[in-house]
UniProtKB/TrEMBL annotation, chain A:
<comment type="similarity">
    <text>Belongs to the binding-protein-dependent transport system permease family. LivHM subfamily.</text>
</comment>
<feature type="transmembrane region" description="Helical">
    <location>
        <begin position="266"/>
        <end position="287"/>
    </location>
</feature>
<dbReference type="InterPro" id="IPR052157">
    <property type="entry name" value="BCAA_transport_permease"/>
</dbReference>
<keyword id="KW-1133">Transmembrane helix</keyword>
<feature type="transmembrane region" description="Helical">
    <location>
        <begin position="223"/>
        <end position="246"/>
    </location>
</feature>
<dbReference type="GO" id="GO:0005886">
    <property type="term" value="C:plasma membrane"/>
</dbReference>
<protein>
    <submittedName>
        <fullName>Branched-chain amino acid transport system permease protein</fullName>
    </submittedName>
</protein>
<keyword id="KW-0029">Amino-acid transport</keyword>
<dbReference type="GO" id="GO:0006865">
    <property type="term" value="P:amino acid transport"/>
</dbReference>
From TrEMBL, chain B:
<feature type="transmembrane region" description="Helical">
    <location>
        <begin position="31"/>
        <end position="47"/>
    </location>
</feature>
<dbReference type="InterPro" id="IPR001851">
    <property type="entry name" value="ABC_transp_permease"/>
</dbReference>
<keyword id="KW-0472">Membrane</keyword>
<keyword id="KW-1133">Transmembrane helix</keyword>
<feature type="transmembrane region" description="Helical">
    <location>
        <begin position="196"/>
        <end position="215"/>
    </location>
</feature>
<feature type="transmembrane region" description="Helical">
    <location>
        <begin position="281"/>
        <end position="307"/>
    </location>
</feature>
<feature type="transmembrane region" description="Helical">
    <location>
        <begin position="328"/>
        <end position="349"/>
    </location>
</feature>
<dbReference type="InterPro" id="IPR043428">
    <property type="entry name" value="LivM-like"/>
</dbReference>
<feature type="transmembrane region" description="Helical">
    <location>
        <begin position="245"/>
        <end position="269"/>
    </location>
</feature>
């Protein structure tokens, strides 16, 4: 039972990282109908930035500064690289974001070097007793932070003017434009939000193990998460992220006992298998919008 | 209703649809194609072996890029899973042609036509298995699912060590033996590099012509209709399921063939080769070359394959780039950045890719000196 609780908490912890990343993907998708493959690079850049800043301005300060800086970076990328492509086929734009990802990642890697950098978080691998099971503190922090961030995002979209504008753009760009909403700034803002979320997620990934050049691969786990939840659903992104985290963690714990024929490390690809299964049943994810097709 | 096939003095005037859709429908096209083939056949006797090997790899990549172009450029089904199908082809060929050792399985069928066809067919089979998912999904959903395929494939190939030799170790690539002659060993007349170059070139011509013929047929028009508006296509009687499955099957067949040949030049490969990066490289080939054109795919593949070689030469021209891995700004970083930058620049500035540049140059000279 302890083992189960431990892997559940671990799953929820890593799942909340995926949720943060997935929220970024979905925010960009809702406003621009594009999946931004640049998220991994922004995540990596955020973690690296924190590893440089935290000795100077404390861990929490570094995280806040990094989130803002990466948000501005993402905003800049949107203005310079993505804006000329508005109205082009979504696939082409998605491929451009792969290009952005490669460029940002190579530049960031130059700042990492070959060794592992520490982000200077206060938790490390310390554990705490939770409902009778020893769980790592950092997972609890991740869960709590993600809960707060998600709640704030929800309030932002529900009650603020800008949030309303963003929802309007997601609903119908032309009508929003006709109502006087600046669609361009909504695009820019959604990239900035996604960049900030990615930076935050990057810091959490780097707690415990540190930052190395392979960190970005973690961000790709958010892709099965958004597909699971449905590309248009913010709630779906959170649920999908948590589901992916839990599935991965439970497979890591139990798969060796129950299904050893899948091979060791199957846990790492289990989210993709889960994604395929869900899509066979529900082609638009769990909470996605079924497109109305017409000529 | 068959008019005169040509009018005297007006050779370039088409009088039938068949003429317009002809394989080499203009005289300049015939001249250029013939010229390029002649140059390509003379080349192995003019340049050094290492360049030949690079070009041979480029030709194989071109076969793979043509395959991706059929499913993505012509039929409009975005696939990030090309690396998976390349891997299937590579391992089918290696297992069929390789010798049975204690470490990896092998069947010792070294005849090239047999393992080449087999690897294409096995990959096509997997393509057909994946296609039903593609029929249900659209756009970016499909892109992400095919991306998941790459990860699942990587896992299987990492763990199935009796087939793949395991990560970091690998296994020898397929044995290229044609009519009893080992093409990867020097013979009395040619060096190994020359033989492989000629083999890959002939195969590229064969598969290129096949693909060109496919896309200018009824099937190709159906692909284009599905790409442009799948609902409209189904309304005018294009069977969506059938053509999507067909597109995936043909594309995977090409990928399988390319995968089988891809490592023959180097002779060795390991499961780490088939990562997402490989898929992105092929996407880059198609987009930089020009989506929806066969010649564009070939240009793009050669360009991407030769790119590392070109950047390696840069430090001699631009001294602030360091040639080894120690400097502030190394060629390796430059190379990686160039991929990204080239994709971005091409898509923004010249969406039709290298093929589009060629079209513009051609149109300029066609009316020269009256360009307006």
């Amino acid at each position: 039972m302890d083992e189960f609780l431990q892997s559940l908490i671990r799953g929820l912890g890593t799942g909340s990282i995926y949720s943060l990343l997935a929220l970024g993907f979905v925010i960009i998708y809702k406003s621009t109908q594009v999946i931004s493959f640049a998220q991994p690079a922004f995540m990596l850049a955020g973690a690296v930035l924190v590893s440089y800043l935290s000795p100077a301005v404390s861990f929490v300060g570094a995280v806040l500064v990094a989130a803002v800086v990466i948000a501005v970076l993402a905003l800049g990328v949107e203005r310079t690289v993505l804006r000329p492509m508005v109205g082009k086929p979504v696939f082409v734009v998605a491929i451009i974001t792969i290009g952005v990802d490669v460029v940002v990642r190579v530049v960031t890697n130059a700042f990492i070097g070959l060794d592992v950098r520490q982000v200077g978080d206060p938790w490390g691998l310390n554990t705490v007793s939770f409902l009778g099971a020893e769980v790592q503190q950092r997972y609890l922090v991740m869960i709590a932070t993600t809960a707060v961030v998600t709640a704030l995002l929800f309030l932002f979209f529900r009650y603020s003017r800008i949030g309303l504008a963003m929802r309007a753009v997601a609903y119908d760009q032309e009508v929003a434009l006709a109502q006087g909403i600046s669609v361009g700034s909504v695009f820019a803002l959604s990239w900035a939000l996604a960049g900030g979320l990615a930076a935050l997620a990057g810091v959490f990934v780097a707690t415990g193990a540190g930052v190395d050049q392979q960190l970005w691969i973690v961000a790709l786990k958010a892709l099965p998460a958004i597909i699971l939840g449905g590309l248009e659903s913010l709630g779906g992104a959170v649920v999908g992220g948590l589901a992916v985290g839990i599935v991965e963690s439970l497979f890591g714990t139990y798969q060796n006992d129950f299904a050893p024929w899948l091979g060791p490390n199957f846990a790492l690809v289990a989210p993709y298998a889960l994604m395929l299964l869900v899509l066979l049943v529900r082609p638009y994810g769990l909470f996605g919008k079924r497109e109305v097709e017409r000529l | 209703m068959k008019g005169p096939t040509s009018i005297k003095g007006r050779q370039d005037l088409y009088t039938s649809y068949g003429q317009d859709m002809g394989f080499l429908n203009t005289r300049p096209k015939r001249a250029w194609s013939g010229g390029l083939v002649v140059v390509a056949l003379i080349l192995p006797f003019m340049i050094t072996d290492d360049l030949l090997q690079l070009l041979a790899t480029g030709f194989v990549a071109a076969i793979g890029a043509i395959g991706l172009n059929i499913v993505t450029g012509y039929a409009g089904q975005v696939s990030l899973g090309h690396a998976f199908f390349l891997a299937i082809g590579a391992y089918t060929a290696a297992a069929l042609s390789g010798p049975e050792t204690g470490r990896v399985i092998g069947f010792g069928i070294t005849s090239l036509p047999i393992w080449l066809l087999a690897s294409g067919l096995v990959a096509a089979l997997f393509g057909v298995l994946v296609a039903p998912v593609a029929v249900r999904l659209r756009g970016l959903y499909l892109a992400i699912v095919t991306l998941g395929l790459v990860f699942l494939g990587e896992h299987v190939f990492r763990e199935w060590t009796s087939l793949t030799g395991g990560p970091g170790v690998g296994r020898p690539a397929a044995v290229p033996e044609l009519f009893g002659v080992r093409l990867d060993q020097d013979s009395a007349l040619f060096t190994a590099a020359q033989q492989l170059y000629l083999l890959m070139f002939v195969l590229l011509v064969i598969f290129g012509v096949l693909a060109r013929n496919l896309v200018r047929s009824r099937v190709g028009r159906a692909f284009a209709a599905v790409r442009d508006r799948d609902l409209a296509a189904s309304v005018i009687g294009v069977d969506l399921t059938r053509y999507k499955v067909l597109a995936f099957a043909v594309s995977s067949f090409y990928a399988g063939v390319a995968g089988a040949l891809l490592f023959v030049v180097n002779g060795f490969f390991d499961p780490g080769s088939f990562s997402l990066l490989l898929s992105v490289q092929y996407i880059a080939m198609v987009l930089i070359g020009g989506a929806g054109t066969i010649s564009g795919a070939i240009m793009g593949a050669l360009f991407i394959t030769l790119l590392p070689r070109i950047t390696r030469e840069l430090p001699t021209v631009l001294p602030f780039i360091s040639g080894d891995a120690t400097g502030v700004f190394t060629v390796f970083q430059l190379e990686a950045v160039l991929y990204g930058v080239l994709i971005i620049v091409f898509l923004i500035v010249e969406p039709r890719g290298l093929f589009g540049i060629w079209v513009r140059v051609r149109n300029y000279w066609r009316t020269w000196p009256f360009s307006y």
